[in-house]
Amino acid sequence: MSTPSISTNVQEKDVSGLALIAAHSHITGLGLDDNLQPKESAQGMVGQLKARKAAGVILRMIQAGKIGGRAVLMAGPPSTGKTAIAMGLSQSLGSEVPFTAVAGSEIFSLDLSKTESLTQAFRKSIGIRIKEETEIIEGEVVEIQIDRSITGGHKQGKLTIKTTDMETVYELGNKMIEGLTKEKVLAGDVISIDKASGKITKLGKSFTRARDYDAMGPDTKFVQCPEGELQKRKEVVHTVSLHEIDVINSRQQGFLALFSGDTGEIRSEVRDQINTKVAEWKEEGKAEIVPGVLFIDEVHMLDIECFSFINRALEDEFAPTVFMATNRGISKTRGTKYKSPHGLPMDLLDRSIIIHTSPYNADEIRTILSIRSTEEEVELSADALALLTKIGEETSLRYASNLISVSQQISLKRRSNTVDLPDVKRAYTLFLDSDRSVKYLEEFSSLFIDDEGNVTLGYNGNSNNSATKIGAKVEDDKMETD
Ligand SMILES: Nc1ncnc2c1ncn2[C@@H]1O[C@H](COP(=O)(O)OP(=O)(O)O)[C@@H](O)[C@H]1O
Ligand SMILES: [Mg+2]
């Protein structure tokens, strides 16, 4: 038996992206009406009205292509919906405008330099809308025949497709079979296949087969069977990011790197050539620049070199809107000795417009927790919700929100489908919030390793006299907290 090939890094990127969004899966937009007025609770968004309205104004400007090269800073205490608002913004942008989300700490990776990571993030946030002539196959599906080999490995098949004037049979490979299965293409569908990329688009169902279906969704669309040749040339418009163009054209990497996320450093000559080319296309009317949004969450994690890079990149001819979030007050900018508002250097702060978020009241917390429980398919009793709300008020919204799923596990253990008061109480005692954790730390401080590497070994000493030095002294500027 042959050993199957194992790939270890293909999925990694997707998973991290999912984790970032999962806590915000209930959010589908900013919850504004047509006049940018925020509704008290809409599209999963609750309260924080001023900040949402401000984000709406930014959204309008981004959509009008007016704000590329500008910076927006969202500042507020933890758990006040900064990341949530950024997610709402990205949902409202639509698929044409690129949105890239990174966390400040992600910029410091082992395989890429800080500036390369930032450059890639910036270039992922610039869309290029390209008009191209491509060759497509367009027709009504007569029959799809797929032969699955018993081992499940290689698939083969045939696609019979027709226009009113002709009919042809195409051989199918693995990739096309997957595409057809994913799009749920059936006989009677009118489809279009891009010959270069293999992308399949369902245009609708053929009128001639309308009577064959008795169960149809309300949005089933009927179209005419195409006329003439099966293969046609068509002008299509598609949007790719500058980064995607970089990767495809960087000879060492090739387009496969796009799927693995393993792009490595891209040479600056490649980027220069691409910039020149894109500028040319723009002149000739073949391409349009779509400045998108680069969201940098926890931006206070960046250091002074990153900040000066951002300052420079904002001046660039292709610059996205940089949307940043921080929970720092007056604090030190990493890599310097200076304190400044939000830990951002003054020159960057100066070019930013600032949106504030503020803590929620009990009603808002209750509504958000109730939306989260619906999203996580957890049924809460009224008492349980009331207690969670109180916990949210006294600790943090995020902590209370995390207790939802934990309490559910506890209720399941006693075979109940509803989370009740005792379940939440139990969850609250099992898992500490940060305040109680700090109290615990203060009580048992000597048993933990401190910044100087001091720790008391053994469980009966609560004084620092017997402290044993282990490990090296931690460097000041690597571990700074405010
Ligand atoms: N206004 C809001 N409406 C709905 N959900 C919210 C709102 N604000 C915060 N949340 C949810 O509460 C949790 C914590 O908010 P988050 O945006 O992560 O806070 P921050 O980024 O300010 O620390 C997330 O699950 C988030 O989706
Ligand atoms: Mg956040």
Provide an overview of this structure.
The protein has 15 helices and 21 strands. By secondary structure, it is of the alpha/beta class. Helix 9 (304-313) links the parallel strand 13 and strand 14 (321-326). It binds adenosine-5'-diphosphate and magnesium ion (MG). Magnesium ion is lined by residues 82-83, 297, 325. Adenosine-5'-diphosphate is lined by residues 23-24, 27, 44-48, 76, 78-84, 368, 397-398, 401.
Secondary structure layout:
Blueprint: H1 12-22, E1 41-42, E2 45-46, H2 49-63, E3 71-75, H3 82-93, E4 99-103, H4 114-124, E5 126-148, E6 155-162, E7 167-172, H5 174-182, E8 189-194, E9 200-206, E10 222-223, E11 231-241, H6 242-249, H7 256-260, H8 268-283, E12 287-291, E13 293-297, H9 304-313, E14 321-326, E15 330-332, E16 339-341, H10 346-351, E17 352-356, H11 362-375, E18 379-380, H12 382-394, H13 397-413, E19 418-419, H14 421-430, H15 434-443, E20 454-455, E21 468-469
Parallel strand pairs: 3-14, 3-17, 4-13, 9-10, 13-14, 18-19
Antiparallel strand pairs: 1-2, 5-6, 5-8, 5-11, 5-12, 6-7, 8-9, 15-16, 20-21
Helix pairs in contact: 2-3, 4-9, 11-12, 11-13, 12-13, 12-14, 13-14
This protein binds adenosine-5'-diphosphate (ADP) and magnesium ion.
